[in-house]
Write a structure and sequence with these properties.
- The complex is a heterodimer of chains A (435) and B (276).
- Chain A has 435 residues and is of the alpha/beta class.
- Chain A contains 19 helices and eleven strands.
- Chain B is an all-alpha fold and 276 residues long.
- Chain B has two domains: 57 residues, no CATH class; 167 residues, Orthogonal Bundle (MetI-like fold).
- Chain B has 15 helices and no strands.
- In chain B, α1 crosses α14, α4 crosses α14 and α11 crosses α15.
- The longest helix of chain B is centred in the N-terminal third of the chain and has 34 residues.
- Chain B is globular.
- Chain B starts with a helix and ends in a 6-residue tail after the last helix.
- The chains are: A alpha/beta (435), B mainly alpha (276).
- At the A-B interface, β1, α2, β2, α4 and α11 of A face α7 of B.
């Protein structure tokens, strides 16, 4: 009897020990976007399957960037998984700050990731972060206002058409602006939009020898066009409008067109929040007549494991769960197909349930059109569409976008801003040793 | 006639004071109003916001999604812990500067204040590395020390100013009666400086409660206070103004209520010795 009691006690202790070792608590840093919040609500499914528990640290995007950058550069180990973007991933991967995501299970089907996403989240052919959701940019427009203006939106319009349509849709008396675009300073805000606009006018940030190109005619043409169009048909004070401000304007029916992240499509077509949910059409981001580049950017919020984490195996399990096909099915079963994380997997766009979603086709086409390896008409020494994948870019582009925002606010001319942008960029690149 | 002028002036002053008070309080009031609105209504024009329906839904969502109690508890520990620790160090320091000044006292006071002149981000990396080395990352102990250090110059300065108002002869008399240094500070000086110390405590609790640089940068999941709770509702892609407002209201409510009930003490302490 004694023997049996001892054996049972031993077995219980052993099982406790084993479960204590295998079950980990993961700390995950993330942003407060709708898809991330949904993921937090579904974490119990992951815990049920693996036994691991999760602690979330949700931060504002800029705070998150500063926070995770501090932690990863000092190998602080405060987080086991970080939500990072397409800009940081290849830079940090090359530095050895991220754990390579190799050895993922066969069920995960890594080849199903959209090629543009996989390439943007890799460095030297190694995947360093798995896309949770991806986006490009596209035109969202009011079908009723377009019809009222007597115009028809082509599937791939030019900037010239957009300007004409914006003027025709503008109705200042009823507080309707023909077009709403980002003007807010910041490399990820107005900086991103003006960069893809410039790309679609044939401009580029640098030539092959890392010389700034703001003194070239393409930049002047793009910025002048942008400012003139916004002055004609944009909302007052657009110099301080970012994604959320324009989303608010569009949802209240105050914009004829809005060119922004494809992920916004689910917000503007959601009848709970949008007053124009049933009157929204979609088209490809425009290009300047005669230029074979559209104003499509490419971005992904992705999950990566910092090199300082002590729980790499459990962290990989989480990433596999959160970015898997099964997770998409799980969200669809709980919240409907319109709410699944978009832009990450090819199979989603082949799924007959998802094909009915009005913005699915245009989202995929927009993502596929963005090419981070060849973002501009003329050759460049960098990758990245709305950003240049070098560590110095965030600082430089934030300063440059501040100069552009000053133009939008009427505080300086296009020429003055471009001259300052040229000097800021060349000085910074020289200091960093590129030139 | 003179009485009429006085009444009129009083009325005007009252109206101006109320107008300024409302102007300062308006952003907080607007946050509170938005927190009771549906997400779709919160982005409308101000008049439409006011005329739209009221709801408690945001509070329910915030409560469900976040662990308010944990963040609140952390805020209480950090705010009061750092203030008490600061007082333990600052009372003797201010006593010696006020009653036994040396040639360098003023320089030391200025030097202490100069630590406030450096932007916090300038020492983020050294501080982060020290925290990693000492295993203090994401701990309440580490943050209590940091917040105490940040507010220590203010505590010393405030106490020094109050102590200077207290006649040194009273302390001398206590010494002649045989009081030790500890007894002199605890039983003679401290009771006389209670109004000043109370306002110092209140101000520092408010400052520590609202501190949002170190509390965001040195915490993750365990020691994060209410500042991190608010930050988690700010979104780059998506409108969550109503939920953000509900989270903000929940975060500022305790300190707002505390400030409201202790405003007399706070004002008396802050104006102590102002008119001489």
């Amino acid at each position: 009897m004694k023997m049996l009691t001892r054996a049972l006690l031993g077995a219980s202790a052993l099982s406790l020990f084993v479960s204590g070792v295998s079950a980990e608590t993961l700390t995950i840093a993330t942003v407060n976007n709708g898809d991330m919040i949904r993921m937090q609500g579904l974490t119990d499914d992951f815990t049920e399957k693996t036994g691991h528990t999760v602690e979330w640290v949700t931060l504002e995007e800029n705070v998150l960037r500063q926070r995770v950058t501090t932690d990863i550069t000092t190998k602080g180990g405060a987080f086991d998984i970080m939500t990072i973007g397409m800009y940081e991933t290849p830079i940090w991967g090359k530095q050895g700050w991220l754990v390579p995501l190799d050895g993922l299970s066969a069920d995960y089907d890594v080849d199903d990731l959209l090629p543009a996403m996989r390439s943007g989240l890799s460095a030297d052919g190694t995947l360093y972060a798995a896309p949770f959701y991806g986006e490009s940019s596209m035109i969202m427009y009011r079908t009723d206002l377009m019809e009222k203006a007597g115009m028809e939106m082509p599937e791939a319009p030019t900037w010239e058409f957009i300007r004409k349509a914006a003027a025709a849709m503008t109705d200042r008396g009823n507080d309707i602006n023909g077009i709403c675009l980002r003007g807010k300073a910041g490399w990820g805000e107005g900086g991103a939009l003006i960069t893809v606009t410039a790309n679609s006018f044939g401009a580029r940030w640098f030539d092959e020898d890392w010389n700034a190109q703001f003194d070239q005619p393409e930049w002047k043409e793009a910025l002048t066009f942008f400012v003139d169009m916004m002055n004609e048909s944009g909302p007052a004070g657009y110099a301080t409008n970012g994604f959320n401000e324009n989303l608010s304007l569009f949802q209240q029916g105050k914009c004829g067109m809005w060119i922004d992240a494809t992920v916004a499509a689910s917000f503007v077509t959601n009848p709970d929040d949008s007053t124009v949910a049933d009157k929204v059409g979609f088209a490809l981001a425009p290009n300047h007549e005669g230029v074979d580049k559209h104003a499509n950017w490419l971005w992904a919020w992705a999950l990566a494991i910092p090199a300082g984490s002590q729980k790499v195996d459990a962290a990989k399990e989480f990433i596999e769960w959160a970015t898997s096909k099964d997770y998409i099915e799980l969200v669809a079963s709980k919240e409907g197909w319109a709410n699944v994380p978009p832009g990450a997997r090819t199979s989603l766009y082949e799924n007959p349930n998802y094909k009915d979603i009005p913005f699915a086709k245009m989202t995929l086409e927009s993502i596929n059109l963005a090419d981070p390896q060849n973002p501009t008409v003329k050759p460049v020494p960098y990758t990245g569409v709305q950003f240049v994948a070098i560590p110095e870019f965030a600082g430089i582009a934030t300063e440059v976008s501040q100069e552009f925002s000053a133009v939008y606010a009427g505080q300086q001319t296009v020429d003055e801003a471009l001259a300052k942008a040229q000097a800021i960029t060349n000085d910074a690149m020289e200091a960093a040793g590129y030139r | 006639m003179a009485r009429a002028v006085t009444t009129q002036r009083k009325t005007i002053n009252t109206i101006i004071a109320w107008a300024i008070g409302l102007l300062i309080f308006f952003p907080i009031l607007w946050i509170i109003i938005l927190s009771f609105k549906a997400e779709g209504d919160a982005i409308k024009t101000p008049i439409a916001v006011l005329t739209s329906g009221w709801t408690l839904e945001n509070y329910g969502v915030v409560q469900e999604r976040s662990d308010y109690a944990k963040h609140f508890f952390n805020s209480v520990i950090l705010a009061f812990g750092s203030t008490i620790l600061g007082l333990i160090i600052a009372v003797p320091a201010a006593w010696s500067m006020a009653f036994v000044p040396s040639k360098r006292t003023k320089d030391i006071l200025l030097w202490m204040l100069s630590t406030k002149m450096l932007p916090a981000v300038g020492v983020l990396y050294p501080m982060y590395l020290i925290f990693i080395e000492l295993g203090l990352l994401d701990t309440r102990v580490g943050l209590v020390v940091v917040l105490m250090l940040i507010n220590l110059p203010i505590i010393v300065w405030m106490l020094y100013t109050y102590f200077r108002e207290i006649p040194g002869e009273i302390l001398e008399a206590s010494r002649m009666d045989g009081a030790s240094l500890r007894e002199e500070i605890l039983y003679v000086l401290t009771p006389m400086a209670i109004p000043g110390m109370a306002s110092t405590v209140l101000l520092n609790v408010i400052l520590a409660w609202n501190e949002a640089f170190w509390t965001l940068n040195l915490t993750a999941a365990k020691a994060a206070p209410l500042t991190a709770f608010i930050a988690s509702y700010s979104s780059p892609e998506g409108l969550f103004y109503a939920k953000l407002s509900a989270a903000s209201t929940m975060a500022i409510a305790p300190i707002l209520i505390m400030g409201w009930f202790s405003q007399k003490q706070l004002v008396r302490g802050l104006t102590f010795g102002a008119v001489k």
